[in-house]
Amino acid sequence: MNNFSFGQYYPTNSLVHRLDPRTKLIFTFVYMIIVFLIKSYMGYLFTAVLLASIIFTSKVPFRVVIRSIRAVLFLLFFTLIINLLFYNEGKTVFEWNFIHITMGGIDYSIKMLFRLTLLVMGASMLTFTTTSTELTDALEALLKPLTYIKVPVHDLAIIMSIALRFIPTLMEETQKIMNAQKARGANLDTGSFFERIKAMLPILIPLFVSAFRRADELADALDARCYNATDKRTKMKKLKFGLTDYLSFVGTIVFAVLVCLDAYMAGGAYIDGLIFSVIMGA
After folding, report:
1. pLDDT grade for 103, boundaries at 50, 70 and 90
2. Which listed residue, 169, 193, 197, 248, has the most CB atoms within 10 A of its CB?
């Protein structure tokens, strides 16, 4: 639970924090699409350098960003094993009973590992540098055209914002419940896989009860403050694009073009094979 950092905001006075939240949302959306389009190690390397520069500019400690990866290590390991076992293309490097590992499977598994790591770190940077209120305003502004077809944009934005805001709170509540269960003699860290899953049931039930209780308290608090009592709500801080936002848009376009060129350039296969050889040699 202590390794879970997604949804948390890290307050610093950096250029990335001062960007318009709409800019950061658009860049994150484009970034996630581009990561799925990357086909070569050069593309992953370029994306990793770009992400590292954003982390450095945001002044968010690298160890804090790494914690977002540690929270999904099981997913990364599971994906790696599945791809190694079921992606059977290329030269065979190991074979035993039903296990059949090929060079193509190793290559695909490494690329998938890079892809998931970059996705998690990139998505985490959005929440590290943007408050839940800013995310709500940005989502509402970007989805505003949908109001013309009677879509409750504001309600959708506030729901997503509250969900992000309560992720750290629920993680903290889970840790408290686990500590309380351990103090009563519960064994949560040993035993077989199914025994540990069964031991989680006494944790999930009070967690759900706590989540519903917090939801009721939040609804009462919103009603007491007459939230959404009028359709024409005003905002104390209005979103406005600045010079850095326009430069970020240009950088986003350049990033997308470079990755697309890398995916289809003539010499990409040779460079990709060279980098894969270096990785296998290491």
Report:
1. confident
2. 248
